[in-house]
Design goal:
By secondary structure, the protein is an alpha+beta fold. Helices cover 50% and strands 17% of the residues. The strands form five sheets. The protein has a nine-stranded mixed beta sheet with strand order 10-22-21-20-11-18-19-23-24, sandwiched between helices. The protein has a six-stranded antiparallel beta sheet with strand order 12-17-16-15-14-13. The protein has a four-stranded antiparallel beta sheet with strand order 3-9-4-7, with no helix packed on it. Helix 22 packs antiparallel against helix 23. 51% of the residues are buried. One of its GO terms (cellular component) is plasma membrane. It is an enzyme of class 7 (translocase). It is found in: Cell membrane; Membrane.
């Protein structure tokens, strides 16, 4: 009898309780479920002892009356729960949940699971009606034993998921305006509240650190095992653990709106979805039991052998088939969540194995996204300080990484920034602003050229490999600001792994100049790149790759990649922790910025589908072998069928549970730095590892 829904039900109950009411309450439903299971186990032990006693009594007493009485009681004790649940399933059309051997989503009809109970119940009733009490009890005993083993294994396969669902902070220490603090329910926190978090405490909501510094364990959210050092200005996430220092945090999001709340929604949503093979089985499940009963009736008509019919019902019970896909998916989701990879639907995990082309954003995805100003190149008559001050004043209203880098440098230089008015940001091109009565333009060279600004007089010899920000004031060029970024740790190793996994096209697209784009593309062994791209170009690139027959994955930060992410067959948001946009836009959210999660995801997808196929094929072979042994050799009894049925289901569950250990060898790589030269060029380009570059059309 399938087990997955029992744990799935606990997941949804836990999620609802964590977000639906006071967190001081205990999580009663899962506890009650375990208590019911423990009670059933006690019944099985009592029934089993009675069966053994009944078997011994046959050889002790001269008559079988004493043995039959004990065996009949044992059969009722052991078979009763199965028969009762089968009647419930027959009435409601849904799988039963009371005895801990569920096999379907408790919110949806799942006729396969319901009819599974009916076949077993019919076999037990038939044996009881023939006064074969000992055999009846033995069949029920082994079926229940197998069910409990399946349940324990299935629950163990998703402990990682349940642990994440239940880590919601329950209490918070809010700082009072007049001094002091008060302990309140974490669910009552609101944006703007200031909380104090001491070492060992869970952070009660997303927020910005206002005072203190500490090492924070973010494994619950990002999957990173090494604590992250954070200080004033850094963001902290709900449910993570403060390990060393005392922190004062201003809450920005709490409860369901926090990163933890969003992640919990993702887990519950994914757990409620079904793989394609399960949906297909559901479609035909309603015909399964009538067909089996018809075959059993034909066998009875020709043989008049009820034992053979009972055995056939037990063999035909599709427990292992129903377990084949859900157990594998639960184990895979558990493995993914441990590494901070959250999948919205299991179908997204299935599709990932077909990915043959990946489109990467550059800044913040392939690079760390922390640009640094490395050169100021002012025009004749302009000072470097004036150039930087004007650029930073215009960019201070933008959230783009380039803008942040320029403003950060102006702060280090202790420059006073004048107020910018009439600020306008032209997506993917630059910004416009009025500063001290002057009209200022900051952005790409092409952006300034479109505005009639001539930059040909600037010295460009030292700009190779840099991202450039051009600045103009009142229609005259002021110069350019050069910035550099670093590629992510181990990114080149990840690209090589993706090539081994069959990803033929590894494409980077960026609005940056060709020189820094080529440097990154060559360093990371990419196959193609497109530089100086506009926001709409990424969408067109995805469409082009799909038109060539590729299954395309799009990877970005989820902020400026919305249309392209939506167009991809698989969309992955990097660094989704703290980003509502990323979590909502992408089908798969990586809560950290480790690129090694991508080959892990593709590998997990392939192995999950392989395990599902192994489970289904093994189960079908088992059924065929047992039917052949029943009718060809006549060596299969109801008791043997019950034992074999349980063993087949347990093998399926254990085979699926292997997926839980996937990703244990995933490690973070040391940072890699490099550089490379380039020439100016537009359009999609092919990158060769030896360095030459040529334009391609597909």
């Amino acid at each position: 009898m399938a087990q997955v829904a029992g744990a799935q039900m606990d997941l949804e109950e836990a999620h609802g309780q964590d977000h639906g009411h006071d967190h001081d309450h205990e999580h009663h439903h899962p506890v009650e479920s375990e208590q019911k299971i423990d009670f059933k186990i006690k019944l099985v032990l009592v029934g089993g002892m009675m069966l053994i006693t009944a078997a011994v009594a046959r050889y002790v007493f001269d008559t079988q009356i004493q043995s039959d009485i004990l065996a009949a009681i044992a059969a009722v004790v052991l078979g009763g729960p199965i028969v009762i649940d089968a009647f419930k399933a027959m009435i409601t059309g849904k799988c039963p949940h009371d005895h801990g051997i569920e096999g379907c989503d408790h919110d949806h009809d799942h006729e396969g699971g319901a009819h599974m109970e009916e076949l077993v119940a019919l076999a037990i009733i038939a044996a009881f009606a023939r006064y074969e009490y000992l055999e009846c009890g033995a069949v029920a005993f082994f079926m229940l034993i197998a069910s409990f083993i399946e349940h324990r294994t299935a629950v163990g396969a998703q402990q990682q998921i349940e642990a994440l669902i239940r880590i919601t902070p329950t209490r918070a220490r809010r700082l009072l305006e007049g001094g002091g603090e008060e302990e309140i329910d974490a669910a009552k926190l609101e944006p703007g509240d200031m909380v104090i978090v001491r070492p060992g405490d869970k952070i009660p909501g997303d927020g910005t650190i206002q005072k203190g510094n500490s090492a924070i364990n973010q494994a619950n959210i990002t999957g990173e095992s090494v604590p992250v050092e954070k200080s004033v200005g850094d963001e902290a996430f709900s449910g993570t653990i403060n390990e060393t220092g005392v922190l004062h945090i201003e809450i920005t999001r709490a409860g369901k709106d926090s990163t933890l709340g969003r992640v919990q929604d993702l887990i519950t949503q994914a757990s409620a979805t079904k793989p394609v093979v399960v949906r297909m089985l559901d479609r035909y499940a309603g015909y399964y039991t009538p067909v089996v009963l018809m075959i059993a009736a034909i066998v009875w008509f020709f043989t008049q052998d009820l034992d053979t019919c009972i055995t056939l019902l037990l063999i035909a019970c599709p427990c292992a088939i129903i377990l084949a896909a859900p157990t594998a998916m639960v184990a895979a989701l558990s493995s993914a969540s441990r590494l901070g990879v959250y999948v919205k639907t299991v179908s997204d995990l299935e599709i990932a194995r077909f990915v043959s082309a990946i489109v990467f954003d550059k800044t913040g995805t392939l690079t760390v996204g922390e640009l640094n100003v490395t050169k100021l190149n002012p025009a004749e008559g302009i000072s470097g300080g004036d150039l930087l001050q004007t650029c930073a004043a215009a960019e201070i209203g933008s959230k783009h990484p380039v803008a942040k880098a320029v403003v950060r440098m102006s702060t280090k230089a202790q420059l006073d920034l004048p107020e910018a008015i009439n600020f306008e940001e032209v997506t993917g091109r630059g910004v416009k602003a009025e500063i001290n009565g002057h009209q200022v333009l900051v952005g790409r060279e092409a952006f300034l050229e479109d505005e009639g600004i001539d930059s040909t007089g600037l010295d460009m010899q030292s700009s190779e490999g840099m991202s450039l920000l051009f600045v103009a004031r009142d229609g005259k060029i002021m110069g350019w600001v050069g910035l550099e970024d670093k590629v992510r740790a181990g990114a080149s190793v990840v690209m090589d792994e993706l090539e081994e996994f069959g990803v033929k096209r590894r494409v980077m697209i960026t609005g940056d100049r060709r020189s820094p784009a080529l440097r990154v593309a060559q360093e990371l062994h990419l196959t193609d790149f497109e530089s100086e791209a506009l926001p709409g170009d990424k969408l067109e690139l995805v469409k082009m790759l799909k038109s060539k027959g590729h299954t395309v994955a799009v990877i970005g930060d989820g902020v400026n990649d919305g249309p392209a992410l939506a167009a991809g067959d698989v969309s992955i948001a990097m660094g989704a922790a703290g980003s509502d946009v990323a979590i909502h836009t992408a089908t798969i959210a990586l809560m950290n910025n480790n690129l090694n999660r991508i080959p892990f995801l593709l590998n997990l997808s392939k192995k999950t589908v392989t395990v599902i196929r192994q489970n289904l094929l093994g189960t079908l072979l088992y059924i065929l072998a047992m039917v052949a042994a029943l009718f060809g050799l006549g060596i299969v009894t109801p008791l043997v069928a019950a034992i074999a049925h349980g063993v087949s289901s347990i093998i399926v569950v254990f085979n699926s549970a292997r997926l839980v250990r996937e990703g244990e060898n995933v490690v973070d790589h040391e940072p890699v730095e490099s550089s490379a030269p380039a020439k100016r060029k537009r359009g999609i380009e092919r990158v060769e590892k030896t360095a030459p570059v040529q334009a391609v059309t597909a």
